[in-house]
Amino acid sequence: MYSAEVLDHFEHPRNAGVIDGADARARVENPACGDVLELTIKRVGGRIAEIGFRAKGCVAAMACGSALTELVRGKSLVEARKLTREDLLRAVGGLPPASSHASHLAMDALQAVLRQTAPED
Q1: What is the pTM of this model?
Q2: pLDDT surpasses 60 at 121
Q3: How many other C-beta atoms lie within 10 A of the C-beta of residue 35?
Q4: How far apart are CA 107 and CA 121, in angstroms?
Q5: Residue 86's pLDDT band (boundaries 50, 70, 90)?
Q6: Tens digits of per-residue pLDDT, 60-85?
Q7: How far is CA 30 from CA 55, 59, 74, 89, in A?
């Protein structure tokens, strides 16, 4: 059973879509289940001014993509790099064991998009 937070992010996703003129873009796929998460970010200075996500997959994958964008939007790149999977799980009120792959997918996508930014940003 999904938490109220998961269902809210699934039913009312935040920051859905692709950011035009994005500074970085990453697409990650889970080969075991086929879920896909794409992140695009636009930076202003060393901060994530805009972030968008597109997800194809289960309820948990979409919810984690949405929650992730809320957690890092407005943060410095340094702060975004410090986000943990546990932070994401807290934001969605936890996930059933069978859906835990969604949090890994979201974190992998975040790390992939942040790798495209300069470390000193």
Answers
A1: 0.92
A2: no
A3: 23
A4: 19
A5: very high
A6: 999 999 999 999 999 999 999 999 99
A7: 12, 14, 27, 18
Here the tokens at position 119 are 């470390």
Residue 107 CA to residue 51 CA, distance in Å, equals: 14
Angle at CA 86, nearest 5°, toward 106 and 74?
65
Complete DSSP assignment for the chain:
---HHHHHHHHS-SSBSPPTT-SEEEEEE-TTT--EEEEEEEEETTEEEEEEEEEES-HHHHHHHHHHHHHHTT-BHHHHHT--HHHHHHHTT---GGGTHHHHHHHHHHHHHHTTS-TT-
Phi, psi of 19 (to 5 degrees): -85, 120
Give the type of residue at 77: L
Q: Which domains does the chain have, with CATH numbers?
A: 4-114 (3.90.1010.10)
